[in-house]
C-alpha cells in the first residue's frame, strides 16, 4: 500500500534558496518540455517524456548550465510529470497541460535513490541534511519525496510502500451525510457539523490585504511583503478547512462501514455567484475526495447517490414527495403524515433509504433508482471506486 506523509521542513536561508532554485529548474523544464511537445506534435512527430529528457540532457550543459546547480531529479521528474499530464489529457480525465507560473505550486520531486531519511532529517543532493518537524510515520520502502512551498513554508511529502494500514472501520453501520452551505454536514443519526467557514471568518482581512496589494508598486519590496502576508492568510484559510475536513472524514470512515452521500454538482454550484463563495468555503469536492480513499483503505464502502434524487423533498417517514422546496425552507411538515422535518436531517435519512433500496454494484458508484420491491441483490464491498 502506498501512503504519503507530508512533513513541514525547517530549512536555513541557504537551504531555502536551494529549494527555490530547484523548484525554478523544475518549472523551467516543465515549461520547456510543454513548448517543445507542442512544436514537435505540430510537426507531425510523437514526443514522449523519455525523448524530451534525452533532448534536454544533450543541451542543458551548454544552454542551461545553471540547471547543474541543483539535483538532476528536478528537471527529469518535471518532464515525467508532463508526460503523465498528457496521458491524463488523452484519457479525457484532465484538461490540456498549461504553463506553470513562478510562485504558484513551487515544487520538485526526488526519486528514492537521490535522498535518504534519518530520524527528523532528510538528506537532499548537493545540499546535505535538512531538518524536518517530525519523523516519518510509516515504515517500509521509501518510493519518492516531493518538496513544495506553501506561502513562506517548505514541506516534504514522502511516499512509502508500507504494510502499515490504518485500523479498519469499527462496524458495518450505515450513515447518510447531507452536505450544505449553512451546515457543513448533517448525518442521519442526528449529528450536525456546522463547519468552520474560515474564508467567511477571515474575509475582512483578506479584502484589506488585497486592497493594500493593489495599491503597491509592482516590483517594490513593500509589495512583496504584502503579497507574502496575503499568501500566508490564504494558507491559513486552507489549513483550517482541511483540518476540519480530515477530522470529519476520518471519523466517518473509522466509525461507519457504509457511508452514503449525494453526487453534488459542485461545478454548477460554483457557477452561481450567490453560492460560489459559501460552497468553496465548505470544500465539498475535498470532502468527497478524502472519503473515497479513506473508506477504501479502511475496508468500508462509499455510496454516491444520483444528483437528481430529490432527497430534500421526500418525506422520510411516508415517502410522499412535495411539489416544491425552495432553499429558504429549512423546516417543513409533510402534507400526508404531518411529520415535521428538518430539511437536511430528512435528506440524510432519505439517502440511506435510497441506498438500501437500490442495487450497488461497486464502491463509490453513482446509485440509480431501483424498484423497492425487487429481490435483494448481494452488495459488493472493497471494490475500487469509479470516482476520479
UniProtKB/TrEMBL annotation:
UniProt KW DNA-binding keyword: yes
GO function term, MF aspect, one: metal ion binding
Keywords: DNA recombination, DNA-binding, Metal-binding, Transposition, Zinc
Annotated InterPro entries: Cas12f1-like_TNB, RNA-guided_DNA_endo/Transpos, Transposase, Transposase_put_HTH
Record-annotated Transposase putative helix-turn-helix domain positions: 1-46
Domain Probable transposase IS891/IS1136/IS1341: start-end pairs: 158-271
Domain annotation Cas12f1-like TNB: ranges: 284-351
Gene Ontology biological process terms, A to Z: DNA recombination; transposition
Keyword DNA-binding applies: yes
NCBIfam families in UniProt: guided_TnpB, IS200/IS605 family accessory protein TnpB-like domain
Family the UniProt entry places it in: In the C-terminal section; belongs to the transposase 35 family.
Name assigned to this protein: Transposase
